Automatic annotation (TrEMBL):
Boundaries of every Endoribonuclease YicC-like N-terminal domain copy: 2-155
NCBIfam families membership: YicC/YloC family endoribonuclease (TIGR00255)
GO molecular function list: hydrolase activity; RNA endonuclease activity
Similarity remark: Belongs to the YicC/YloC family.
Protein name per UniProt: TIGR00255 family protein
Keyword annotations from UniProtKB, A to Z: Endonuclease, Hydrolase, Nuclease
Occurrences of domain Endoribonuclease YicC-like C-terminal (ranges): 176-291
InterPro entries assigned: YicC-like_C, YicC-like_N, YicC/YloC-like
Cofactor(s) demanded: a divalent metal cation
PANTHER family noted in UniProt: UPF0701 PROTEIN YICC
Length: 292
């Protein structure tokens, strides 16, 4: 079954007082176009993450996000109580020696003193946390691939519908094609009858008519188109990976045969059928761009 390049996956795992969030979005692209946003603690693992995503996703415009949500109660910047006390004692001592009045708002003053609001130490990534982050990444990838499979199944059904429509339209050309030779012959003979003063070689006319009919024959185009339709179906059954470009090439060849058939169709009914086949094919080409 084919896979779509469109997908979405999100996962959240808990580690101590943290929640590790991973979100992955994927759209169609000719190759892998990977954009990552990584919270600083996992920055050292960026190349490993990129390699893992490239291996799993293969193609598509992929946006990857990983961030950490911390417990607010445990994430407040600590106050350096010992330093606050030291500043307090120094200011009281200076006030006593100089006679300068002590401040009315001690707390407001002390919390603004240098280094009182101590910044937390830089976090270092440990193996346990990284293992949980990898679990979140794999869960999000699994959900995204499930999404791609569902979209791929919908594309598979849509392609089969369009291929069937083209086959049916191609078959509907046959009745018009059968009567075309007689109509062309009658039209030419009617035209010659108008030229009463002109004599012509009837055998030569038959030869020229045969040559003209052969140039308008679409038997080969019809057979090649049927072969392409069959090959398209077979390619969809090959597997889930790497068939998108191949299906695109087959669709191009289908278009060549339909266009040639239209160029050789000198009847309005046949040309109308060709236009409908082109419409079905355009819908295939649009959706092929989403196939892995």
């Amino acid at each position: 079954m084919i896979l779509s390049m469109t997908g979405y996956g999100k996962s959240v795992v808990a580690y101590k007082e943290k929640k590790i969030h991973v979100e992955i979005k994927s759209l169609n692209s000719k190759a892998l176009d990977l954009s990552v946003r990584i919270t600083p603690i996992y920055r050292e693992k960026e190349m490993e993450i990129r390699h893992h995503l490239a291996k799993e996703l293969e193609r598509g415009k992929v946006d990857f996000y990983i961030w950490v949500e911390k417990d607010v109660a445990n994430d407040a910047t600590p106050i350096n109580a010992a330093l606050v006390e030291n500043y307090y004692n120094q200011i009281k001592e200076i006030s006593a020696k100089t006679g300068i009045a002590e401040p009315a708002d001690w707390f407001g003053l002390l919390v603004r003193m240098p280094d009182v609001m101590t910044q937390p130490e830089i976090e270092e990534l440990n193996e346990d946390e990284w293992h949980m982050a990898q679990q979140a990444i794999d869960e999000a990838l699994g959900l995204l691939n499930d999404f791609r499979k569902q979209e791929g199944e919908a594309l598979f059904n849509k392609f089969n519908e369009k291929i069937n429509n083209i086959e049916n339209l191609l078959a509907s050309i046959a009745p018009f094609e059968e009567h075309r030779v007689e109509k062309i012959k009658e039209r030419i003979e009617e035209g010659l009858k108008q030229l009463t003063s002109v004599d012509y070689d009837r055998n030569r006319l038959e030869q020229e008519l045969i040559y003209y009919i052969e140039k308008l024959d679409i038997s080969e185009e019809k057979q090649r188109l049927l072969n392409h339709l069959k090959y398209f179906r077979e390619t969809m059954q090959e597997g889930a990976h790497g068939v998108g470009k191949k299906l695109g090439f087959i669709a191009q060849e289908m278009g060549r045969e339909i266009n040639t058939t239209g160029a050789k169709s000198n009847q309005a009914e046949m040309q109308n059928i060709v236009i409908r086949m082109k419409d079905e094919l355009e819908q295939i080409k649009e959706q092929v761009l989403n196939v892995m």
